Every structure is written in C-alpha cells, then in structure tokens.
Amino acid sequence: MNHHSPKDEFNDGENVNFSDNAHMDDLLAARLSRRLALQGGIGVTTGLLLGGSAMAAQGQASGAARAKKAALKLGFGSVAKHRDDKVSLPAGYQMSILHALGDPLHWGDESWKGDGSESADSYNRRIGDGHDGMYFFGLGEAGKFDARRSDRGLLCVNHEYVVAPYALHPNGKTGGAARVASEVEKEIYAHGVSVVEVKRDAKGAGMGMVRGSRFNRRITSATPIAFAGPVKGSELVQTRFSPDGMKTRGTNNNCANGYTPWGTYLTCEENYTNVISRAAGDDAKRSAKEIAGLKRYGMTDGRKSPYLWDSAGSDDLFARWNSAVTGASAGDDYRNIFNTFGWVVEIDPFHPDSTPVKRSTLGRFNHEGAWPVPAVKGQPVVIYSGDDSRNEYIYKYVSKALWDEADVNGGLAAGAKYLDEGTLYVARFNADGSGEWLELAHGKNGLDASNKLYALADQADVLIHARLAADSLGATKMDRPEWGAVNPLNHEVYMTLTNNSNRVAHDATPTGVQLKPDAANPRYYSDSFNADGKTKVNKGNPNGHIIRWKEAGAQAATRFSWDIYLFGAEDDAAADVNLSGLTAVNDFSSPDGLYFDPRGLLWIQTDDNAYTDETNCMMLAAVPGKVGDGGKAVAAGGTETRVGAKATPDSVRRFLVGPKDCEITGIAITPDGRTMFCNIQHPGEESKLDALSSHWPDSQTNPGSTKRPRSATMVITRTDGGPIGL
Ligand code: FEO
Ligand code: CA
Ligand code: CA
Ligand code: CA
C-alpha cells in the first residue's frame, strides 16, 4: 500500500513498537546459547551451520521426485527500466484493461466519465479504487468453485484506498476541517472488495468482465460483517451497531489477500488507522490498560485520521469513525471501532448473498495478507501472515481441524471448521539461521493477566492485542513485512520486507524506536539519488529484502531454518549492499507484492521510492532455489547474515515496468498459466488535479492524453496464447 505520497512511503507504517525485545545483546546471547545447544549435538539447523553444500546434499533426497519434472526456465527477454507513463512488457506479450476505478458492474449505471460526477451510491455497484491483492477462482458449470478451470472464473480484487486528490471527486478532495458528506460517502463505498465474473475471449487467452453477472458484487466500508472465533461477542468489540459484539460494519484498507482450499477469498485489513480518529481528551475516560492497547496500535489521544471521515457529520455512517468514548457504555458509542479492524475477512464469492466473516483466530494487526500452504490431506491448514509496519512481526496460523477434500465448496461453513479453532504463532529469527514459532495462547508463555507488559484477560484480548502478546514473547522485529508466498513445489515460504528507515548502524546507539540490524534484517546503509548527486536521503534499509524459511518437518512445525533469498539493490551499489549480485536485467528496490504461480514461478512486485529517480515500479519473474543454497555474508553496516545463491539473468528477470508514480500490486494467473491478471495502483499518485503526472491507463495507447489516471486490473497474455513467463 502506498496511502501517503511516495516521498513519505519509505517512512510509511505506523511506528509504535516500543518493546525492547530482540536487541543486539539478545541476539548475541541467543548465538551463545545456540552454540551450547550444538555441543549437545542437536539442532534442526545443522545443515545451515555446515554451510550450503551440506544443505544441498540434504535437499537432493527429498527433491528427487521434483527433479523428474522439466526444470522451469524463464522464456522472455528482460524489460528495460524506464520512467515513461506506460506499462512495458517483453516482446511477444500484450495487455488489456479488465476493469478500472468506477467501471459499472451491472447494467443501469453509466460508464465512468472521468470527471468525478458519479454518485456516491453508484459506487456500491462500481469498481472501487486502489486495486491491490486479488485471486482468480475457477468457475464450474454448476456455479461452483473448480480449481482446474481457466476459461471462466470469479476475480476478487481488493480496493485498498482512495486517491481522493485527483480521481473520485469533481474538483478533487475539498479541504477544510470538516469533510463534505457526499465525498466521504463516495470514499466509503469505493473501499473494500469487488467480485466479478470473468470469461475468456472466443479466441486466445484474453479475458473480459461479464457485466451484469449474478456473481458481481461489492463489499465496502459499510457492509455488515460477522465476527467469528474467540473475539466474537467480546466486550472489546461491542459498538452501537452491535451492542453484543457479534458483528461489525465494513472492511477497510484491504491490502493483500489469501484464499482457501475450499474456495473462499481472504481479504486483509492493513492501514485502518487512516480512517479512524480519536477525539482529544479521550485518555481521561480510559483505563491505563486501554490506553496501552490503543498506543501500541498507534491510536493516540486526539489523533485525527488522514481521511477525517468522522468529521463529515453526525450521521452514523460518519460519526462511527471517531473511536472516542461519547456514550454511557460501549453499546452506546464507537469507542471499540478500532478493535473491529485489522482482521482477515473471509468472503464466499460463489454465494453473493453471504455475509463476510472476520476470522479472529488470525489475530489483529496491520494485516498485509494471508498466505496458505497448499492443503495436504490429513494435515492442518497453515496460513502465514505479516504485520506491515516498521519493526513488526511475522505470524503463522495452524488449524485444529485436519484437511479433508470433501470440504471443497464448503463455503463459510468450511471456513468455520478450519479458521475458528487453531493456534496463532509469531516468529523469532535467531542469529544462527534457525527460527522458532512462539505460541500466542492465553495462559501459556506468560500470556495472562499477570503479564507485566499488558494484562491479557483472555484469548480475545490476546488476538485483539496480538502485537503486545508478541512483544512479550520476544518475537523478531522485521523491516516491514509485506507479501508472503509459498513455493508449491517444496512448501518453502517467502516474505518481502519492503524497507525500513528505522535501522541504525550496528555500532550506533539507537534512539526512540530505532533498532540495530540483526541477522534477519541485516543491512544499514545510505542510498543517494544518482540523478542529482545531492545528499543521501534514505538511511537504514531503503531497498528491502526477501526472507524465506523452511519448516523443520511438517508445515505445522514450531522450528524452521531461514536465509535471505534476495536483497533489493541498484545494480551499481556496493557489494555489501548488492548482496544478491543484481544486474541491469534484474535490479529492483522495495519488494512488496509476491506470488508463486501454480507452476512454481515466483513473481516479485515493487512499491518503491528509493530507485524511482531511475525507474518506475516493476514486476520481476524468478526461478528460486531453496533455503541454504547460498552462504554467510556480511551486510553493509557490519552485520553477518545468511544469503541465498546470487541472482543471475536466468534466475531473476524483469518482466514489466509500470507507468508513472504507481505501485505494482496484486497478481493472479489461471491454472493453465496462459492468462495473468496484474494491478496498477495509484498511477500519478504524486499529482494534483491541475497537474497530473500520469494519465494511465489512457496514456497506454494515447501519449497525448489529459485524462485522469486510475487504478486498474490488466489482463496480460502472450500474443501466441502460450504459457506466461516460460
Ligand atoms: Fe498495502 Fe503494506 O501495502
Ligand atoms: Ca503492499
Ligand atoms: Ca508498500
Ligand atoms: Ca541510483
């Protein structure tokens, strides 16, 4: 996501982790205790400690079956970096627009005019703004989920946020202390999720939206949503809308996504603090415990949200975005609205009348997405998740129920079976290349009312305040976890750590919320803009990296080994910055979107501002190796780490470069690999309405365009209809 301007994006993410776990001293202590453990001859990471060749030998046995398959090979020419206002693709590829902001889903609404004249209400039936995570579900003849179907499907797309200054309103966003009600109403309906039916063209692998399909649907920031799991009915989610805490309204700031093996969509609530305010003086009406919880999630006394939805009037549609105490009890006001966001929401796209469900077992934080491991019969359902703020954590959910294929097409009832009872863990990455999953269960590991950091009353409290529970277990603070992806060929897990300005040199003294580098977040350096040769602007880890791990045995294991698959860097950066050896065909900065397609190709999307003096954001394709295929390295700033094999033009290659001031985010590929969906979010984000920096998508075919830019989903195919990327 990039709600703020790209200039601020490097500093994006509420930075509220004041806990003091995982400092350098602790990492050194951990290394020492690890050594002691090794003297006993144990340890799942022995292979890593022996070095890459030992790991490779170990991997060969389990990989024998896979070796029989033809090796994946990238089959396109690398796309050059550029700063033009268009999407560029490799030779032999083409694109069309599936849908863009404001396109009507049904018959009866006019086409998008591009002048902001559409009514607020019509956005209940139009494509929302800020296209982000998405998933393609094959649609079978009986209107059911068919995972093998490529020619017809339901495409679920997140609409993360509105680019109000230039796209939605007639004259841009009206300023002032109080927002205009009709503008806020339109913004509320332009957030959320769209579900549309898509169908392949008569010829080739292109696809179009089926306007008027009975499956087409919008879910917005005002749609009723049920709570499930331990938080359902908790006093911490009681509101005037739902005094018994059984439901809430709206899903918001839906960033990345997930999907389930039974055929439902998971949408994840990230920067919800952008729309929630808290009137000044509210601390005086709150307990010390409540204040601690609010503070840890960035909701300080007197905080005004950037969108100021609460300022648009006393109507409940607007007033509910003020989280201050105004009534006699929680059932009389919206003091708890803040606790009703930050969840993973399950949507059944095959049943348009179904009520979406907030699955509380996956915890509450700035959820980037929810990435499932391919389901294995008789094994738990496992879902990984990250908290996208600086110095936040990586999580893992393991279901209690074991996977049974009979539950395919089980809808939200299957969701209840697998997602309402299970265990949430948070990750600790040890300095020696091992890692542990720490259980976030009330009554275990000191997570109870006697906890000194925050008195945890019950499991609902643990899940609502997952960050505080994770703090007290000593989880590892990461460089802003964005997307994850699970390799379908070996079930290793990858996650982007997009960047972090709050790392300091490893011999420096951190102040405030700064952290020293650690082995899993090892780099500290400055990044200068080559174009002007001026002062170095970005310090810390400006270009980000992609970490990966391999569970020790079954996917539900509580130990793992890790390394850093790729470090983002400019091709001309110093060797201890460009640790993966990127060159002109594959250098990138600030990885964000990440997706393994069904064939095992890895797609990497960027949301960057550190390299944007030379190139717009981009997408790369990769044939990854595996954990432990590299070795040890010392990163810029002096911290030792574990890095995967160096990138080559054959292993990582640039596939696409986007238009001006955009982010590439959201990707899905049909099961046959011939149709790709890819999103362009907020083209021209730097713009004012009277000085637009982008006119995309119109500029794609009309270089002299003066139209407003808008977020959109592209359909990308090969001109010969062949498999993409290979
Ligand atoms: Fe919405 Fe973390 O990007
Ligand atoms: Ca993102
Ligand atoms: Ca981002
Ligand atoms: Ca440069």
Describe this structure in words.
With 726 residues, this protein is of the alpha+beta class. Helices cover 12% and strands 26% of the residues. It is built from twelve helices and 34 strands. The strands form eight sheets. It has a nine-stranded antiparallel sheet with strand order 13-14-16-17-18-25-24-21-20. A hairpin with a 6-residue loop joins strand 4 (192-200) and strand 5. The radius of gyration is 24 Å and the shape is globular. The site of one calcium ion has 6 residues, from loops.
Helix residue percentage: 10-25%
For the CA atoms, what is the radius of gyration? Answer: 24 Å
| Morphology call | globular
Low-confidence segments, given as residue ranges, are 1-15, 22-68
| SS class | alpha+beta
